[in-house]
Amino acid sequence: MGYKTIVGLEIHVELMTKTKIFCSCTNEFGGEANTHCCPICLGLPGGIPQLNSRVLEYGIKAGLAFNCDIARKTKMDRKNYFYSDLVKGYQISQDDLPLCSNGYIEIELEDGTKKIRLERIHIEEDTGKSVHTETGDTLLDYNRAGVPLIEIVTRPDMNSAEEARLFLEKLRATLKYIEVSDCKMEEGSLRCDININVVDEGTGNRTNITEIKNLNSFRAAVKAMEYEEERHISLLKKGENTVKETRRWDEVQGQTIVMREKGGVADYRYAVDGDILPIEISDEWIKDIEDSLPELPHHKKERFIREYELDEYEAGVLTQSRDIALFFEETLKYIDDTKLVSNWIMGDVLRRLNDEEREIESLNFGAKDLADLLSLIRDGKINNNTGKKVLRDMFETGKDPKTIVKEKGLIQISDEGELEGVIEKVLDENEQSIIDYKNGKDRAIGYLMGQIMKATRGKANPQLVNKMLTEMLKNR
Ligand code: ZN
Ligand code: MN
Question: What's the pLDDT tens digit per position in 235-247?
């Protein structure tokens, strides 16, 4: 028997509504400090919050996408605590009647599908932001105060860092599909807290839960979980236990660091927010929202398998984000060749984006450009290797492939007369290879091909050269 890791997550997601949750200030990221504020989001006395119905709509969308029950009656509560980025002294959130509850997200593991249960999704307001300066001052920016959030709380159903990563990927992809958040972790639109502990399956002993706060990338989250997993196990092995505490991940030191000990359950003295009326949600509204949901990732995947005859893996890669799927289908509008398009997107396009840790949205060329490139290859205007070179150029310059091919003179040589001269010359210069070939050494033909491609700066039509070379060798 071994050790079992237990992971639960709490994820805060900023919704991309036009305005904030309780006032009409803009919900735009950044901006000069304290310019997106009014008496309501600054929490000044007398400011009356009014709930933005889009926030409910987006929250319900998320709830439906994650298979939740949607509350028909709910309310907003005050969560009391003191912190300088929280001007009112309380956060308007939801306590015992969350907007959505009892959902799940499915992740694909090697031995099948696993359901990760969601306890709840509630709506709440974001706080302001503390900015710590190099001189030791703390500045406060309230532009973020009142930005709408959903908080998604899972059950402790994940049993490794990898499962948590798959869960987060799926969560993010779906939220982007349904367009409720841009999920930009670098801008804080998606923030993840982790609860982790370990059980010794032999003795039943378990460690106290460690909370890891403020992970700013999935990679950091995975590293932090792996680090904690090991720390918990090594303590169990020594017959010791962890302290129930909150930690943070330090990227430079590659370890988690204690922030504070958790003494008992904090008492937030939740109470109904008297300024906001109880909320009633009708069946019709939920139905309307459900009808407005776009195709979700797993449905799209099934359709791709059916419609484009892709295998499970290919369809999974091409639907991992809404934008990749869109790019694939856009490209197909200009060139009707599923195999060619899927191979190039999954291969050279996504490989490079992954290496550079970029999203497909950041490409500086469009689906039409990729289709043009693939048409040049399919029609034999350029060969496959030249195509790869042109794509690299497109990544760097954003120029369209036809221009690149023209400017660099990359058109494939398919003129037999021209190729004959080149092959003749290469054969004359490589007597030994001809002898080797005649003696049955097949490597010789590869070498000669290489020489011909070199002589034509990679532009020769390889199939044609191969055919001509075999013919011409016979006459030598
Ligand atoms: Zn405001
Ligand atoms: Mn929260």
Answer: 999 999 999 999 9
